[in-house]
Specification:
heterodimer; A: 283 residues; mainly alpha; MetI-like fold; 2 domains; 80% helix; B: 287 residues; 76% helix; 0% strand; elongated
């Protein structure tokens, strides 16, 4: 045990906390810099306290590696991390996400004209969306083989129902009055769909697209626990855990966290461009 | 209740498609077997064979139902082959983790609502953490804790607590902030203390939000427990049943474990829904 690290971590935490309290209650608390700065300081504090505790208490690497160890591991194994990222994220998660979401939107448009199908499919869809769909992973791995196709299939199943429910809800979002206006223009069904109801559904569709980004990544990673070729983030996590190389596991998790946030951010950015007219985007 | 007919129609359609898919996906194996035995299969024989294979690619619904019945009612609940036994292992870890995660989540939400520094510092991270595939760290938690000597229910409960934690924080903060400015002003004119405002206005107002996130949280907690059972060497629990089924090609076993997990999830969400309806009705907030 080395007291220096512990005291340093404690002092840093106290200082950062005092700084944050002061910043949050100061008259600058509404400026952009402070809004961005406070969470950043909080994040840095966690990293420093983590580092201090691990070093100060001499926590062995097989229980919790220090942030600097993880960073060194990331630097040292960029090619492996990149290969895993391509296998899991680009091939597995992204393919499945695109297929699943477009299939859901198309299904929603197809059942749009039948109130009967909607009344039947929506409760079933809502029910399935709450189920532990990750459990289908072993079955789909058995059907589609070990490579990325089975991971994409798991992702398709996972994103389909939340997306379907959101799109159907969105297609019902335009008001009676707006639809009547389209009727007085003598607009046909496809015209109403394209010019009124799909644009009106966009906030809902993007809500679904945002929720499912996380599901896609989770599905692709967990499916790899059930069997995969010798690359991929889920494969790497489960095997390196077995070898007790936890710094590599944390490096993979850091990449997964980064990929998840970037994915979500990208979808949110597209949403900003598409639904610029919506009150929530005009601030 | 006018939705009953459409729902039943959709469910019936799913069952029909399932049977069709079972015949189609299992026919290859049946034809291979027949070819090796040099017998010609009539269509009727082919269908009966595909629906009663020992290890089909896709088991037919009645096979899964039979297996479910056999492994819940047919076995004593202490037997290692009983799904009730495995389901209880999973359920107990889920409930323990859910209770813990929800409690922590509510406490953190209260802290966030009352401290501006915590709100600005912690809230962005709580929201950002929802975009991160947290489930990926499940194997690590299990292995690290078992190397520290902690095994059994606790590691799985930690994972499900972690997964149910963030939805509750985000939902509860939204709920505690939901009282309108007018309501808060009214409490102010009563010269209510912070404590009184919290217990008499903010807490009741947050209930609809709390229940909505509890439903999300318990579903997530169940998934967390199931995934947490994967790396332990597949001994006990529904997740272990799935993994051992996939090791030994016992597809019927995987499907029955999957359906059991689905029933469990539906029950848990349904129970919270009932509590929600009764609570909100007693509070006069029923929609």
């Amino acid at each position: 045990m080395s007291w220096g690290w512990l005291i340093f971590a404690l002092a840093f935490w106290a200082g950062a906390y005092a700084l944050n309290v002061w910043l949050a209650n100061s008259r600058y608390s509404d400026t952009r810099a402070v809004r961005l700065g406070v969470p950043v300081i909080f994040g840095i504090t966690i990293l420093v306290v983590w580092q201090g505790l691990v070093r100060g208490l001499n926590v062995p690497m097989v229980i919790l590696p220090a942030p600097t160890d993880i960073w060194l591991r990331i630097i040292a194994s960029v090619p492996t991390l990149w290969e895993d990222f391509v296998q899991t994220f680009v091939k597995g998660a992204l393919t499945g996400y695109v297929i699943g979401c477009s299939a859901a939107v198309i299904t929603a448009i197809l059942i749009d004209r039948s109130k009967f199908l909607q009344r039947g499919l929506l409760p079933v869809g809502n029910f399935i969306a709450a189920l532990p769909i990750v459990g289908t992973a072993p079955i789909l791995v058995m059907w589609f083989g070990f490579d990325w196709q089975s991971k994409a299939a798991v992702v398709v199943v996972m994103v389909f129902f939340p997306m379907l429910v959101n799109t159907v809800e969105g297609l019902a979002a335009s008001t009676r009055m707006q639809q009547d206006l389209m009727a007085t223009y003598s607009a046909s069904y496809p015209q109403t769909l394209r010019k009124l109801r799909l644009p009106a559904a966009m906030p809902f569709i993007f809500n679904g697209l945002k929720i499912t980004t996380t599901l896609a990544l989770i599905g692709a990673i967990v499916a790899e626990f059930f069997g995969s070729p010798i690359k991929g983030m889920g494969f790497r996590i489960s095997t390196e855990v077995g070898r007790l190389r936890l710094d590599m596991v944390w490096a993979e998790i850091a990449v997964a966290a980064l990929a998840g946030s970037a994915f979500y951010g990208a979808v949110a950015l597209i949403e900003k461009g598409v639904t610029f007219w919506h009150p929530s985007q005009r601030g | 209740m006018k939705s009953i007919v459409p729902i039943l129609t959709v469910v019936a359609a799913i069952v029909v498609i399932w049977y069709g898919a079972a015949v189609w996906m299992n026919s290859q194996w049946a034809l291979d077997q027949a070819g090796r035995a040099e017998v010609e299969l009539s269509f009727g024989e082919l269908v009966t064979d595909t629906l009663s294979q020992e290890r089909p690619r896709l088991p037919a619904p009645h096979q899964v139902v039979a297996e479910l019945w056999d492994s819940t009612v047919g076995k004593s609940i202490t037997s290692k082959r009983s799904l009730v036994f495995h389901g209880w292992i999973t359920l107990s870890a889920t409930l323990l983790g859910f209770a813990f995660g929800t409690g922590m989540g509510i406490l953190l939400a209260v802290g966030i609502v009352h401290s501006r520094a915590m709100d600005m510092g912690v809230m962005p991270w709580a929201i950002a953490s929802q975009t991160i595939p947290i489930l990926a760290i499940a194997p690590m938690i299990i292995v690290v804790l078992s190397s520290l000597g902690v095994t059994g229910i606790i590691p799985k409960a930690i994972i499900s607590a972690y997964l149910s934690f963030f939805p509750v924080v985000v939902g509860m903060v939204k709920g505690l902030r939901s009282p309108a400015h007018m309501d808060l002003d009214l409490m102010h004119t009563y010269s209510a203390s912070r404590n009184q405002t919290f217990w008499k206005l903010r807490m009741p107002a947050s209930m609809p939000y709390l229940f909505a996130s509890l439903k999300v949280g318990i579903a997530a907690a169940l998934v967390g427990t199931i995934v947490g059972e994967l790396p332990t060497g597949a001994i006990r629990g529904l997740g272990a049943r799935m993994l051992s089924g996939s090791y030994y090609g016992q597809t019927v076993q995987i499907w029955s474990a999957l359906i059991a997990a689905a029933i469990l999830a539906a029950l848990l969400v349904g129970i919270i829904g009932i509590i929600q309806r009764n609570t909100l009705k007693r509070m006069g907030m029923a929609q």
